[in-house]
Amino acid sequence: MKLLLHICCAPCALYPLRVLREQGLEVHGFFYNPNIHPYQEFKRRLATLEDYAAGQSLPLRVDRRYDLEEFLRQVVYREEQRCRFCYALRLRAAAIAARQDNCDAFSATLLYSRFQKHDLIRELGEQIGQEVGVPFYYADFRLGWQEGVDESRRLGLYRQNYCGCIYSEKERFCKAD
């Protein structure tokens, strides 16, 4: 089975890629993350992923558009729902890319993080998969969280310390005085 894996960053790809390959899947990576702020962070995550993918012989499709404005248009005044809009934006792009690349299914490394909303990701992935005509492949990769963290450190990969969007950056670094 050929699976398109939406990848938010290299460290989050380590464990899912290993598991999916062990299951015999032909994995192709896909990077589309217009939510990441600031632009230098976007570039650093992409560069780290491209280096990692090359070393893993992982075919990687990259959508280099930095459409931060589109992400913000969807979220502004609905910040409490920002993850829903962010997930949907990226999962829809992945499903469309999977259809274009004749993949049998698509998934996301978002399912690796302990900090993401798995039920929402699964719900949106399955809904978008039905709409686009490519099944969403759900797997709970959180079981390998620590393994992936340890491996990414061993490899010396750049590890970010917030989800990616301007709101998560604020929550991580802006502490009330």
The helicity comes to: 40-55%
Total beta strands? 4
Question: What is the residue-mean pLDDT, rounded to a whole number?
Answer: 94
Distance between the termini: 52 Å
Assess the beta-strand content as a share of residues.
5-15%
- Biggest sheet overview: 4 strands, parallel
Sequence of secondary-structure elements: EHEHEHHEHHH
Q: What is the CATH top level name? A: Alpha Beta
Count of individual helical segments: 7
Describe the structure.
This protein is α/β, with parallel strands linked by helices and 177 residues long. 51% of the residues lie in helices and 10% in strands. The chain contains 7 helices and 4 strands; from the N terminus they run E-H-E-H-E-H-H-E-H-H-H. The protein has helices at residues 10-22, 39-55, 68-75, 82-100, 118-132, 145-155, 166-173; strands spanning 2-6, 26-31, 60-62, 105-108. Strands 3-2-1-4 form a 4-stranded parallel beta sheet, sandwiched between helices. Helix 1 crosses helix 6 (145-155) and helix 4 (82-100) runs parallel beside helix 5. The N and C termini lie far apart (52 Å).
List keywords for this structure.
alpha/beta; 7 helices; single chain; 177 residues; Rossmann fold; 4-stranded parallel β-sheet
Which SSEs are present, and which pair or pack?
Layout: E1 2-6, H1 10-22, E2 26-31, H2 39-55, E3 60-62, H3 68-75, H4 82-100, E4 105-108, H5 118-132, H6 145-155, H7 166-173
